[in-house]
Amino acid sequence: MATLEDVSVEDLRQILAEVDDADAAKRLMAAITYKEIDDLTQADAAALYGFSSSWASKWFTRLERLADEPFEEVVYDNPRSGRPAELSDEQHDQFVEALHDSPQEAGFDAPAWSVPIASAYLRQQFDVEYCDRHVRRLMSEAGLSWKTARPEFHKSDERAQEAWQDGFKKKRNNVDDEYTILAIDQTRQVLSTLIHAWFPEGERPSLPVTGAWDSIKLLGAVSDTNETFFLPCEENFNSDTTIRLLDALQTEFGEKICVVLDNASYFTANRVQEFAEDTPIELCYLPRGSPELNPAEECWRQLDQALGNRPFETLDDLRDAALTALDSIEIPDVFAYLCP
């Protein structure tokens, strides 16, 4: 007897919402009732809606075809007129080709394909309508899979970076010789970070982790005099922590500092800029999407290498290890990044 293991209640309810025939709706309700009530037999579910046990056997066997066929071909007694039941081979090839382009190419205002968008494309382009389950199957067969997209951050073009570097060279030539140039950045380190390493061929490596997401936060600076400064933060990065860093940098390097930084909101906040206006501090914001211009990023890269693959019991242990590692990093040349 058919068990409907491959047909979920959600699938049946979706189809029920789309059918336009009372008899088909009644039959679907019998199937939904059977799926939702434990220990209820198909014959009993059929009887609740006035159907016989022999009918139940045929109907539930027929419903299993929903895993592979459009619902119109299964739930109605006769083929539906007016709308084609399925895609032709040529239409199928066109659908697959569309799926491998952006939905925007097909006229949809969306960055990526989803089942509802693909269904809308089928309706508008071919006047064909499938249940969500069948559309997912078609998308899978077309070579698409459900996955989380990696974030793609704004990337500054080379011309913008070159223009910034030219402007920074001029600014550097114009500032007082007493100014110290500093590049600042931020990082977050969790108790366990796995990075790539070398392992024997043919083995499946594993390393211990804590399973905790607790972290320490660090603000850091690299100077044009080949010095570094790092400030641990208890709270999340915000305008207050930025101001605290700038104040600490003045204490460490003198009142006149030219600070190169990215466009994070806690760096560009009005409070930060208002604070700088009342001091000799010069703020130079990098072009958006240009981490490769910031020498402080090299400090974090070396820190990741030092802490990677090492589980820490407590945040204090992690903080001590991070500050020890930062004391021994190879300090990058600021000008090799900012104005090569």
Helix-strand pattern, N to C?
HHHHHHHHHEEEHEHHEHHH
Q: What structural class should be given to the helix and strand makeup?
A: alpha/beta
- Globally, the shape reads elongated
How confident overall, as mean pLDDT? 84
Structure annotation, total helices: 15
N/C terminus separation:
75 Å
Low-confidence stretches: 79-83
Supply the CATH architecture of the largest domain: 2-Layer Sandwich
Helical percent range? 40-55%
Strand order in the largest sheet: 3-2-1-4-5
- Calculate Rg over CA atoms: 31 Å
Percentage of residues in DSSP E strands: 5-15%
State the major sheet.
5 strands, mixed
CATH fold descriptor of the largest domain? Nucleotidyltransferase, domain 5
- Look at the structure and give the CATH class of the largest domain: Alpha Beta
Summed up, the domain count is 3
How many β-strands, per DSSP? 5
The CATH superfamily title of the largest domain: Ribonuclease H-like superfamily/Ribonuclease H
Task: Fill in the keyword field for this structure.
single chain; 340 residues; alpha/beta; 5-stranded mixed sheet; 15 helices; IS630 family transposase; Tc1-like_DDE_dom; Homeodomain-like_sf; RNaseH-like_sf
